């Protein structure tokens, strides 16, 4: 989707337009009515008790609970190893020192930003906190030991401190998962949002928001003077709330918490004035950069004589990084195959009893450097599935949604077997791919493994995706999998390859786990 398209002439208003520039009272009143069940109402309470207020307090309590649980478990485990138990006085001293230092842990976590990111980042999750929690618990455990040594209030054994550290990393992380799960079910978690700019990019962002209700963004509509034609996949409930000149009033009236600036056709100076005019309303402002296809989380903002510049890192992955990534793949895939061996055997038996045919399905895919390999999956379809592909072509989701036949996905595919539907829903059919990872064909995290017909459609800069091995999961898995159009999938793979880091791989793995368990990451 080229940025220059946003500067083209807006099509004349008509039946196909998103909405007329002048919005009637019925549309604006309807938006306020739809807001009533989400926002507690206007006034001070609705301003203060928003997502930030809710999440910060929930995470603080969850951290305190996780640390306390880890402390109790460490004491119990230490006794269970045959070590002599402490006297009541020594035990009371250790607990007293721990609870005296507990508020300090919360303060340090606040200074590290572990309580504020959910309000500003719509897709922030516990997976993004793992590194911060690990560092906080590590420093905190050593500080606890140092404080005990300096104050002589307690003398915990090194073994017990190590146990506390290990328990705390797990318990605090799980407590944060539970806290965020609780918060997402609360009305205050939803953020009312508007998009300034109803062009191609603005509507693209709106569709992505609608596809991910877990972000907790209640998109009310667009603010624009000259909207472009409505995209067919866009919800009919999203309308034009008013022209850009009324942005301040719209934000105030609808209790908007997030404003997304997405390539409005208004002049730069006017947009700058609009953003400045709403800064006093305590709203989160997200600005889509002009070259958003190139800007990634690894991009850095730096100043040059008072001008903010976005720095794009060089497209280079060092040899040591590649080796470390490969070592991680080998270790994790080997362990996974050993641990999952009983489950793999049960699935194989179920497939054999359910339908005739082989247990495993092999298909030619294109890997790193353009080399072909045979991907291994559990068979989920009938043996004549390939022969029926032409017969069912009219059900192809991608062809029907955007007339794009480069990818073939059928919701509720009639060729799937009974066992196959379950396997595909929870991604269990992909477990044999750990063999591909162990052999070096694939990686745990990477670009999407394409069949040759799909690979031939990727050209020019998109071929950069072949610099790394394809993955069992990746950005394409976390952000929508089968719902992602072909061109967007190529962009995501390009972004992953050009911004690779171990931390990013870890976050994607952690974000994939809940998708698998809930069945939201499975294919059709």
Task: Specify the overall morphology.
Answer: globular
Task: State Rg.
Answer: 26 Å
State the share of residues found in helices, binned by percent. 40-55%
Give the number of helices: 19
Give the quaternary arrangement of the chains: single chain
Number of strands: 11
Outline the low-pLDDT stretches.
Answer: 1-47
Strand content: 5-15%
Give me the strand/helix succession.
Answer: HHHHHHHEHEEHEHEEEHHEEHHHEHEHHH
What are the defining features of this structure?
524 residues; Rossmann fold; 3 domains; two-stranded antiparallel ribbon; disordered N terminus
Task: Report what the structure shows.
- The chain has 524 residues and is an alpha/beta fold.
- It has three domains: 3-39 and 190-292, Rossmann fold; 51-184, no CATH class; 319-518, no CATH class.
- It has 19 helices and eleven strands.
- It has helices at 25-35, 44-48, 51-80, 88-111, 117-120, 130-151, 158-184, 200-211, 247-253, 268-278, 319-339, 341-354, 397-402, 418-425, 433-439, 452-455, 475-478, 486-498, 502-518; strands spanning 191-196, 217-223, 239-242, 258-261, 284-287, 300-304, 307-311, 360-366, 372-378, 443-445, 471-473.
- Strands 3-2-1-4-5 form a five-stranded parallel sheet, sandwiched between helices. A two-stranded antiparallel sheet has the order 6-7.
- Strand 8 (360-366) and strand 9 (372-378) form a beta hairpin.
- Helix 3 (51-80) runs antiparallel to helix 4 (88-111).
- Residues 1-47 have low confidence and may be disordered.
